[in-house]
Amino acid sequence: MMRFLLLFSRQGKLRLQKWFTPMSEREKKKIIRDMTTMVLSRQPRSCNFLHWKDLKIIYKRYASLYFCLAIENQENELLALEVIHRYVELLDKYFGNVCELDIIFNFEKAYFILDEFLMGGEIQETSKQIVNRCIESSDMLQEDDSSEWYEVELFG
Amino acid sequence: MPAPIRLRELIRTIRTARTQAEEREMIQKECAAIRSSFREEDNTYRCRNVAKLLYMHMLGYPAHFGQLECLKLIASQKFTDKRIGYLGAMLLLDERQDVHLLMTNCIKNDLNHSTQYVQGLALCTLGCMGSSEMCRDLAGEVEKLLKTSNSYLRKKAALCAVHVIRKVPELMEMFLPATKNLLSEKNHGVLHTSVVLLTEMCERSPDMLAHFRKNEKLVPQLVRILKNLIMSGYSPEHDVSGISDPFLQVRILRLLRILGKSDDDSSEAMNDILAQVATNTETSKNVGNAILYETVLTIMDIKSESGLRVLAINILGRFLLNNDKNIRYVALTSLLKTVQTDHNAVQRHRSTIVDCLKDLDVSIKRRAMELSFALVNGNNIRGMMKELLYFLDSCDPEFKADCASGVFLAAEKYAPSKRWHIDTIMRVLTTAGSYVRDDSVPNLIQLITNSVEMHAYTVQRLYKALLDDISQQPLVQVASWCIGEYGDLLVSGQCEEEEPIQVTEDEVLDVLEGLLVSNLSTPVTRGYSLTAIMKLSTRFSSVNRIKKVVSIYGSSIDVELQQRAVEYNALFKKYDHMRPALLERMPIMEKTATNGPTEIVQTNGETEPSVVEPKHPPPVTQPANQANDLLDLLGGNDVVPVIQTTLPTKPASAGGELLDLLGDLSLSGIPPMIAYNKNGLKIDFTFERANPNPNIAVITIHASNTTEADMTDFVFQAAVPKTFQLQLLSPSSNVVPALNQGTVTQVIRVLNPQKQQLRMRIKLTYTHKGSPVQDLAEVNNFPPQSWQ
């Protein structure tokens, strides 16, 4: 399973944190510090895999954001790269040419998308279209809140 | 009260802060506003406030006062509220807070909500952070949803079930009926999560695994699904660079791996599909390689036929030539795993692997180095060693120690000749001498001693190396030792292997004295050179010069040197007749197992001499495997039954239980005692007389731990005065569990023929909360009955 996913900028500012196992605030802060230090100090053309404690850390940089995914030892690293890429694609489709600012100002949407793609440290949905449709429908439901329509089943 | 500012506005404002202090001030102001808003129980803006709180939490500020508000949001009817509420719960709450249990009822209601997106939120939250209690309470609801025809909910329920099983493994059984027709779904999301669920069940329970193999015929089903994925044409919904749903493919391959492991029938059933995937998958992009990688791992783990295995290794060999670093890295890691079982197949790729030593990437270099060492054998030792020594010359310092140890180990196992062996060692010492491990020095000395015919050559090469460079301590130490031993061969120019050099006794002594005064020499090195100089007094004729040097160091500030010099002086003055015998050539030492960088020699039961201070008499201990010898010496007594301590899994009141145990155990009427009690570690001694020999006291130590963290790598050592003999049997374990949840026991047998008062010194080493701890103590409070 995946253990955690972190997004941070080149200056080490955290933009998203998803933890798939329970951990204390202190542990989380320490892990964030360790990850940002380790990943930001890597040479530009190194391989994207690191070892940290008993986990494999997969990281990839997209523009100004680093995506850092921790997986257990028996997981497939090359596939983890695809997982990160898929999440970026989902964000890109939703925001239209996504950039760091989109994720800063709409962090809750980034989480909602993530929660339709991954769950409990595993992949939940492998189809891009289905994830996008679910998010759109949920957004519609939010709008309907203000117009007092609650029970709208859209796109099944 | 004005409406609280919107989330966007807050983010924008905070981002304008130019210093950390300014940001903190803004945050504090906003938090205060949010707190008052919460106090007013304002439903309209609660959602907005919690969202702002989550943003500030991400920046690293405390947000715990929003936890209850999240619960209120979850309980709201509005979808917007629920969305933010559940998100807040996932970010701010976890099972450590009691508050989280209040969610259970909300989640239960939402699992039955009429809107699937609300049900989805509930499932997601439960599946991400549900505690064991919550999982127990709601497992039934999850199981119900696992059987629904709504694929959106079904896939979420499947992953939720996975989480429930991880938290409460006993509940696995209840999900079994629902798994029956999961794989006949067309929806990929459901298929994927179902495979994850089945994998989790098979990994956790061998019974489940057997059930799925035989009764459910899982393998043919999975093979069919995989085949469809590969053979089916372009599917826009699942396509990734020309491959249909790689995520599902990889997951199926992984489940096949588990099903096929150690099972001939299953392995045979999947043979064809594995070969098909291995040969047909497109390798131009990372996706294809990810699938190939998983396929290789599966082939290697199941009982595949040899043709398939060779195919797998060849795939890895092709990976090694790939431009993509990640793929090269993954190939090296996999080859490392298979090199033991498929050694010959991996050997075929040796040259490619050795080329990877020159890769620029640090992770790849390390893997290549480990794999190279694994591939060294008697046939390729010369060629491989050349490459590895070249690597040692040019690699980063972080590799040098491991590489040097690896070279020594390989050289020892496969050296084609003694001369080659010495040359290799010399090369390592001269190029990476300061990175060589400390234990290499005695190992090398032993090796050199045993290569009798090479002594002259060795000492000559070492002497020449010293002339060049005296900064690398291991080199200098080995060299001094050799010169001390074989200096006579050096000056007499007896070397056969190469051109003997002309060197006088004075030149040699100059070099050794130079080591003594040089700032580059460590105290240990100085000790070596002083002793070497002394040894030359029986090999050289210039004894007076040596006497002078030795007497000078009699007043050295370094205590170790001073002691040596004083004793050597005494040797000259009062015990000159003994000197030749004492400084004789070293005999050939017995070969003991070399400790490689990864081997750890367990010496449980032996006390290291360094534990005891020089003044006290050396301890006499017997390792556990000599138990029988000891008993034979004492007249072949039957072993007294080892006193069993239970390792209770229930916590607390263990203190009371320990006392009960001790109560039961004073069979011999000798009262138990507390031998050590410090930093949460308590060691009790209980006694028994060994029948029928009354001179042996059998002591059982009970180690218990009152702190909240386990003490791991726990080692107990003991030493007794000269008149006693001690035998330490194996301990029950080397982890002392926290909070008195169990004890480690170990039996000591003390032979006390002279019926002297029993005294003992104990040394305790363990790891606590990640740091090593060591302590020495003296035990003097033995009850008189134990030794009288």
TrEMBL record, chain A:
GO annotation terms (biological process): intracellular protein transport
InterPro entries named among the record's database cross-references: AP1_sigma, AP_complex_ssu, AP_mu_sigma_su, Clathrin_sm-chain_CS, Longin-like_dom_sf
Every AP complex mu/sigma subunit domain range: 1-139
A single GO cellular-component term on record: AP-1 adaptor complex
Entry keyword annotation includes Transcription regulation: no
UniProt keyword list: Coated pit, Cytoplasmic vesicle, Golgi apparatus, Membrane, Protein transport, Transport
Membrane protein topology class: Peripheral membrane protein
Keyword DNA repair attributed: no
Major place of residence: membrane
One GO MF term attached to the UniProt entry: clathrin adaptor activity
Family annotation (PROSITE patterns): CLAT_ADAPTOR_S
Annotated compartments: Cytoplasmic vesicle membrane; Golgi apparatus; Membrane, Clathrin-coated pit
Assembly with partners or alone: Adaptor protein complex 1 (AP-1) is a heterotetramer composed of two large adaptins (gamma-type subunit AP1G1 and beta-type subunit AP1B1), a medium adaptin (mu-type subunit AP1M1 or AP1M2) and a small adaptin (sigma-type subunit AP1S1 or AP1S2 or AP1S3).
Record family assignment: Belongs to the adaptor complexes small subunit family.
Protein name: AP complex subunit sigma
Organism: Sphaeramia orbicularis (orbiculate cardinalfish)
